[in-house]
Specification:
- By secondary structure, this protein is mainly beta.
- The protein has seven helices and 74 strands.
- The strands form 16 sheets. An eight-stranded antiparallel β-sheet has the order 1-2-3-22-21-25-19-20, with helices on one face.
């Protein structure tokens, strides 16, 4: 199927589910319901607040530089930008991607993608909608109520058909393109009229709308005393949920009334090509008095500009999508048309705009991830004016910001950049797609397709792909290219490349007179930020076998599975082997309770700690004989925390349930499930990882745990940065680098609704917890480690351990304010061992559940596979390696004290 056929199919699929009544226009304004405020808990309960909008100020010292541009399809260009700004006197940088659509090009178009199958009330990711509809690029769209069925808050026209009407909320702008290819940005109201066969009329309030609280009228409910139409695009049985009104519903097929249900909803979804009129109060009285089964019912509607009062026929539009505040007007930053307090901060952002001459539409997405600092709304305005936007609006941002595009010569779209939550794409109600209708052209060029980043030992297949004169993919598989690679870091044979050493190469393919090349980088150990073993702890028992997949995370944030051939394994405390991704313990050395399987990739290490202690069940709530209480930090927040009987898959067991209602609160809000009053429940020994089963509520809130450690300090553990699932799942949390001093106490599990991006998160919900366990290798791995006190004096060649003086051959020294000691004597006193590699000048220190990799003269170190930075580096003095005492001892769980008068260092365990 070619791109043209795909585009036609998707358009027909989308339009087949829409409603198109007879076009009879009404000139008079309706005396209908005027709506105020949003429903509490909606996406944007804060941003929809009706307070005055602040005047936008241009961001100071903002600049944007174009990094690259590449054609997506004829008439659509992907442009990459780097922006720089100043925040509180400090420079901040970030990245943004812009798809520039040329409306003068007849082959490219914009349209609104909707859920699954072109339906409302069925959410889908941006990438999923793009794949389903054949879009060559796309971004997320309108704001929506996360607790609702899945309908946009603004108006929507798809394929020239009205899908949803604007909510009558102040300052909510929309973006549209007319069928004669002119862009429009304006604020609209909806006006509609129902006409019975006897000539009686009643105002129509909207089409396919979720429930919300109105602005500016006497009613606090959008559906009170109102009539709404629901088409077959609305697939949910409730029309809508949470409306606080009892419906009278009318089924209309071919403009004829076929069913009437008084004071109750029709127990059916909307049939194909029909619509259901949903009424309440005065509107229901109209139905009872004037509508009869078998009679005709006429529906008319119009959109009206709030700025010009001109009517707009939706049938003249190719597409329309709702947004939020206007951002740019006449090429300058505009005053915000709504309050933006709840969508503040530096976030990922999505926006739409067009050029002064109306030729170009700019589809904008700014990144917020490890590579980019995000944008404030004011900075987004500056970015838009920098790149030539004449008029532009804000779309849904934050965690919803997602862009996908089809790279040149490829056949499907991919994620343009990582979202705020990584590669995960949030399911949303609609998006804006870029489509092509270009015919197949002649071959214009070829390019190499394949991974641009490899690890040593990794094999990857590359292919030659072509694009035509319209920049759409064409098949060039018949070509038999010759492959070469420069630089020696990669070998290539018939399109299969093998990475052999770190470096960057030019991979080239030649077919006849045509050739293409691409750059491939092979990552070395210095290019990694972490090396992660899929299993951090394992049982130390002969015959035990565990899966040990290893993945690498580059400094740029990319995660890549490490080929087995690229890893070198070393076993300490046992004899073992690794094959087919599995670690097998063949024999345990006599007297050993802790072993280490060390995996090295080009000098970068991680370790699997093996001990006789496996995961220890800590709390399953079956026999919890201590109290649980609900607490919060914010006035107006209510909830419950209690052990209750599990349901569904947890039937027959008990779980800890945490319910919360933050709808009356403000600011950063917490809902705590408190363990055992203020004391919490003890975690008796050092834990390297935690496991907990959690029932999510798809609230997109933050989930954490709070502990008090042995030193009295409070420690916070992220269980989930975002609760983006429903139902039960098991969370595994690495505690090895947490710095918690054990024994500790788990005080509470809790949910956070933070101020930044608060419009995205639900304020009500219920989560539950079960089967909490900890891996505490210290129960065995540290049980045999010596305890006590050791003291050394600067310049003195002696060490006093538990009152006994021992000679040492190198005295501690102080250099640049830091104390250095020979690590050998610390380990002799407190247990553990060190492995020295003279070639690489690395020393790996192993103690208990900790594996610490240090390099002479380098301030960076690796703890349990994660690269970290220190203020000082190890050094060599008199042929002995000296390490920064405080760095090493604190990372190994020891306590260091300094006595200034006597220049004495005391270490305690």
């Amino acid at each position: 199927m070619n791109e043209l056929d795909m585009g036609k199919k998707s358009t027909e699929q989308t339009r087949g589910n829409q409603w198109s009544p007879a076009k009879k226009w009404i000139a008079a304004s309706l005396a209908g319901v005027i709506w105020i405020m949003p429903v509490v808990g909606s996406e944007g309960a804060g941003w929809l607040g009706a307070g005055p909008a602040p005047v936008a100020q241009a961001a100071a010292s903002f600049s944007a530089t174009k990094l690259s541009e590449e054609v997506v399809t004829s008439g659509a260009m992907m442009m990459k930008y780097k922006f720089t700004t100043v925040r509180s006197g400090k420079s901040a940088t970030g990245l943004a991607s812009v798809i520039r659509v040329d409306l003068n090009n007849p082959y490219v178009s914009l349209d609104v993608m909707t859920g699954k199958g072109g339906n409302l009330t069925t959410r889908q990711s941006t990438g999923g909608m793009a794949a389903e509809t054949g879009a060559v690029a796309a971004v997320n769209g309108d704001y929506f109520n996360t607790g609702g069925e899945g309908a946009p808050i603004g108006g929507q026209v798809s394929g020239g058909v009205l899908v949803s009407t604007p909510s009558q909320l102040n300052g909510m702008y929309a973006f549209a393109v007319t069928k004669d290819r002119k862009p429009i940005i304006d604020e609209y109201t909806f006006e509609g009229m129902l006409t019975a066969e006897d000539g009686s009329q009643f105002p129509l309030s909207g089409v396919n709308k979720g429930a919300y609280n109105p602005e500016g009228g006497s009613s606090t409910y959008s559906h009170a005393n109102a009539a709404y139409i629901y088409t077959d695009a609305w697939t949910a049985l409730e029309r809508p949920k949470g409306s606080s009104t009892t419906p009278t519903e009318v089924l209309v097929e071919n403009d004829t009334i076929t069913q009437i249900s008084l004071d109750s909803a029709l127990p059916v979804t909307v049939p194909k090509g029909a619509y259901i009129l949903r009424t309440h109060g005065l509107a229901a009285q109209f139905v009872k008095a004037h509508l009869v089964v078998g009679q005709k019912l006429n529906s008319t509607y119009v959109l009206r500009s709030k700025t010009t009062q001109q009517q707009l026929d939706p049938s003249t539009l190719q597409m329309m999508i709702g947004g939020h505040t206007i951002l740019v007007n006449n090429g300058k930053a505009s005053s915000f048309s709504r309050s933006t307090s709840s969508i503040g901060g530096y976030r990922a952002r999505t926006a739409l705009g067009y050029s002064q001459d109306g030729r170009y539409v700019y589809v904008i997405a700014a990144e917020k991830n490890s590579n980019s600092a995000g944008l404030s709304l004011t900075e987004l305005q500056s970015f838009m004016t920098n790149i030539g936007v004449w008029k532009g609006i804000n779309l849904d941002g934050g965690g919803s910001t997602t862009m996908v595009d089809r790279p040149l010569a490829e056949t499907s779209t991919t994620l343009t950049f990582n979202t705020e939550y990584g590669k995960e794409q949030r399911t949303i109600v609609n998006g804006v797609g870029v489509y092509t209708s270009a015919p197949q052209g002649e071959v214009k060029g070829i390019k190499i397709s394949g991974s641009s980043v490899l690890l040593i030992g990794q094999k990857a297949t590359y292919s030659l792909k072509g694009y035509d004169t319209y920049y759409n993919p064409v098949d060039v598989a018949a070509a038999n290219p010759a492959w070469t690679a420069s630089g020696g870091s990669v070998t290539v044979n018939a399109g299969e490349a093998t990475a052999v050493k770190p470096g960057t190469v030019k991979l080239k393919a030649t077919s006849g007179t045509a050739s293409a090349e691409t750059e491939v980088t092979v990552l070395g150990g210095e290019d990694l930020s972490s090396l992660i073993a899929g299993t951090a702890t394992a049982p130390l028992q002969a015959g035990a076998t565990v899966s040990v997949p290893v993945s690498a995370v580059s400094k740029s944030g990319a995660t890549i599975a490490v080929p087995a051939t690229a890893l070198k394994w070393e076993f300490i405390g046992f004899k073992g082997s690794v094959g087919d991704g599995k670690l097998k313990v063949e024999a345990v050395d006599p007297g050993v309770t802790t072993g280490y399987a060390i995996a090295r990739y080009d000098g970068f290490s991680t370790a699997v700690v093996l001990s006789t202690a496996a995961a220890t069940a800590w709390e399953d709530f079956e026999n919890a004989n201590y109290p649980f209480t609900f607490t919060t930090n914010a006035a107006g927040v209510t909830g419950t925390a209690a052990v209750v009987a599990g349901s569904a898959e947890r039937a027959g067991s008990k779980v800890l349930s945490l319910s919360y209602d933050m709808s009356a609160g403000t600011g950063k809000m917490y809902a705590y499930a408190q363990f055992n009053g203020t004391t919490g429940k003890d975690i008796p020994a050092a834990a390297t990882s935690m496991s907990v089963d959690v029932m999510g509520d798809m609230s997109l809130n933050w989930m954490r745990a709070e502990l008090t450690d042995a030193s009295g300090k409070t420690a916070y553990i992220d269980l989930a940065k975002v609760i983006d699932w429903n139902g039960w799942k098991t969370l595994n949390i690495d505690l090895s680098g947490s710095g918690i001093k054990f024994p500790a106490s788990l005080k509470r599990l809790y949910v956070v609704n933070v101020e930044e991006g608060q419009d995205e998160r639900a304020k009500t919900g219920t989560v539950a917890f079960d089967n909490i366990s900890f891996v505490m290798p210290s129960l065995s791995s540290e049980a045999g480690l010596p305890k006590g006190t050791a003291a050394m004096s600067i310049g003195g060649k002696a060490m006093t351990v538990n009152g006994t003086k021992r000679p040492i051959d190198v005295a501690p020294i102080v250099k640049d304010g830091s104390t250095y000691v020979p690590i050998k004597y610390v380990l002799d006193a407190f247990g553990g061992n060190a492995v020295w590699d003279a070639k690489t000048k690395k020393i790996m220190v192993l103690r208990g559940a900790k594996a610490l990799d240090l390099t002479v003269n380098k301030k960076e170190f690796v703890l349990n596979g994660k690269r970290q930075s220190a203020e000082v580096a190890p050094m060599i003095l008199n042929a002995r390696t000296l390490v920064p005492l405080r760095l090493v001892t604190e990372q190994l769980g020891l306590t260091v004290k300094w006595e200034q008068n006597t220049k004495t260092v005391t270490i305690e365990s």
